[in-house]
Design goal:
- The structure holds two protein chains of two kinds.
- By secondary structure, chain A is an alpha+beta fold.
- Chain A is built from 27 helices and 19 strands.
- Chain A has a four-stranded antiparallel β-sheet with strand order 16-5-18-17.
- In chain A, a hairpin with a 2-residue loop joins strand 17 and strand 18.
- The longest helix of chain A is centred in the middle third of the chain and has 34 residues.
- Chain B is mainly alpha-helical.
- Chain B has a domain of 103 residues: Tetratricopeptide repeat domain (Serine Threonine Protein Phosphatase 5, Tetratricopeptide repeat, Alpha Horseshoe).
- In chain B, 76% of the residues lie in helices and 0% in strands.
- Chain B contains nine helices and no strands.
- The radius of gyration of chain B is 30 Å and the shape is elongated.
- Chain B starts with 6 loop residues before the first helix and ends in a 12-residue tail after the last helix.
- Classes of the chains: A alpha+beta, B mainly alpha.
- At the A-B interface, helix 7, helix 8 and helix 27 of A face helix 1, helix 3, helix 5, helix 7 and helix 9 of B.
Chain lengths: 671, 219
Amino acid sequence: MLQTIRDRLHGIIAIFIFALLIIPFALVGVSSYFTSDAVNNVALVNDQEISINQFNQSFQNYRRRMQAQMGTAFDPEQFEQAIVRRQFLDQMINEELLAQVSTDSGLAVSDDRLAEAIRTLAAFEVDGEFNADVYQQRLAAQGMTPKQFESNMRTGMVLDQFPTVLASSAISTAWELKEFTRLQDQQRAFRAIIVPAYPAVESGEGSEGESELTDTDRVADEATEVAAEDAATEATAETAIEEEAVLAWYEAHQDEYLSEEQVVVEYLELDAAALGGSVEPDEELLRARFEEQEARFVTPESRMASHILIEVAAEAPQVDVDTARQKAEELTERARGGEDFAELAKENSQDIGSAAEGGDLGWIEPGYMVQSFEDGLYELTLENPISEPIQTRFGWHVIYLRDIRPAEGMTFTEARDLLLEEYRAEVDERRFIEQADRLIDIIYEDPTTLDAAADELGLEVAEAGPFGRLGGEGIAANQEVVSAAFSDLVLAQGVVSDPVDLGLNHIVLIRLKEYMPQALKPLADVREQVVESVTRQRAMEAAAARADALLADLAEGAGIDVLAETAGLELVEAEAATRTSTDIDGQLREQLFLMAPPDESGPVRTVIELENGYAVVQLESVSDGVLSEDDALRKAGYSRRIANATASDETMGFLRMLRAQSTIEIFEDRL
Amino acid sequence: MIEVYDAREQGEIVKKWLQQNGSAIVMGLVIAFGGLFGFKQWQNWQISNRQQASSEFEVMGQLLSANQLDAAMANFQNLQDDHPKSPYTSMAALLMARARLEVNQPDLAIGLYEFVVDNGYPKALTVVARERLARVLLDQGRAEEALTVLDATTDISGFEARFAEVRGDIYFELGRNDEAGKAYLEALDKLEAGVGDRNKLVMKLESMGVEIPGDGSES
């Protein structure tokens, strides 16, 4: 049959069959190349894949770094947000782009520079110097080989080259410096009348203030007291604000009077420490464990010995064995007769290692030597320290016992408490794991209730709350419990949470019992705040009207000094206020520098809103900032500021241009 | 169609076939191995070439930070002669230009920027060089030329904010305040958060009396 096939495999039929075969092969091959992995990508950067695994790993690392950096300020929920993941992906894409452009354009880092960079890393230094051992250890601790680390480091350095050069070659020109200084160090001369809205009202002091009106050296405190008199109507009105006004404010500002969103949860707590207690093991078992683990508690007797070996293989002819034994016996005699054992060993021992040392074997513990040797050694006493010849597979030994170190350690009674404690911990843990498994199984069967699990395992369902997103007391003091309580699973789907670890072998599962959404607090509860707001609002309105009136007076030609004095208000003035003058109210200063400069027609005037009241401002002159030659420090600071700002802009431009030149696909649904 | 050959006949056939096709096979092998070898050689040459550029660049950087401008210039010259299209040469030129500006040799800096504008690689570096060139020209009182340099390219994708601010500076210097205001506004609009110096732009706009749209609440 094969032959027939072969015969026909010519011509059109053959071509046809091949063509047919090619189709499935081609399709399977091609599609497996293009689709099988594609599902696992979160982004394609010029056909280079960023897989979901890569992303997750990097993101976890980043998260851990941030956690270490921020400490308690770390908010795990923030890292759940889609936008944070998305931003991180953008960063990864930027890095990938940088890596691509760096490799494509042939950037490299020489071995010397790599070594130099590693040597200067503080993490591997001991007393300010690079330490190779620390280097190895630190890497091993992170599960990395030096090769891997060096490769990572090299990649990072290559990646950094363009941004580094962009930053270190950044410039600021003299023209830019001059322009920046002109605006930044601009000085403004102004005078302003401060119209406070909230005088420190202390009833009955108004008349005192009036008596001091003639005092030209008036201080601000007194001035405000005088203003208090003007605001007297408001002051009395504070107690008599109409109900309609309170209600109207309350209605209009509902979003300011919302209660916090809260939950009440029920929970099951499983704690290994709470499970144990009653378990009493029998003495037998503890004793068995003691014997099993004897090495932990007892250091056995050890003996210091020397020996002389007369070599002869065990399977050697009887004659040789006998000759050797005679030789050994003779040595035993001589040693017992008082000759120096070490000398004898040096001359006669055929154990090359120890002979030079006078046959010394050092301290010997049971289990290290051949059995017959060990038996022989342990039969000796210090009174009778030289053995008869002992045969092992090496030959004949003469052993000399030199010293005995007695056994040390705990007796069973001494070790019993420790063993008991360990036993209990083990039992607890085992029971905990069993129970936890069972618990999770039961919950898995019906995730809408904790009761079934509580019944079967004999646990109590407890209750916690109400607490808000900031946590509360009891288990709600644990931030992870709070996160779980407000998680989608518990809050929206209404099912039991995943187990939350409270400690070692200590978990809790929670379920929503009651949800109290943000709600408008009743008026009665917030009345005081509302009244305060209305009062403030009215005071501000009155102050604004007063400021406008003063502004009108100024426009009609009144002098600002006189005006302030007659009104009994504080006058603030400066000949050369700068953007950084700290002795001027922040809001006033900021608005002052936003005012258009005055022209020939005279000073510019306006009313500026402050935190507590208004200021009637008269801007008199503006002068440009100039850098004097001797102000080198300031000059250098401004230069650096300009160079750094433009460099960051240029680096961003660099990255964005790379992006524009690349094809980037992002699969946001897989993030 | 079964043909039966004895051993000798088969030998003959093989020999004949080899005579006909042997040289072609040998040629094929030679070309394949030759190509492979050549490719390897070319790769090695490229790697060593890149490493050479890289080390010239490194040395130049070290000399620059040691303030040995003339010595550094020699290394730069090597880069420029031997690796005109290497990114290392572009980066070196940018660093060298800054050094020239620091010792008050703006004309030399201008020359270096022009070199990168014309020969730089990758493209984004040429755009940076162009922007810096315009700034130095403006500083040298050559505002019109600076404008021409900026206008010479439209492909500045990504650098819009930077170019707009420089353009604003040039217009301002030329007394074309309306255009300057528009350019600064564009720069402010295109500037990404956390990049550049927003306050500086706001200050420039305010000093010209330009309203900043939708920025009323921002401090």
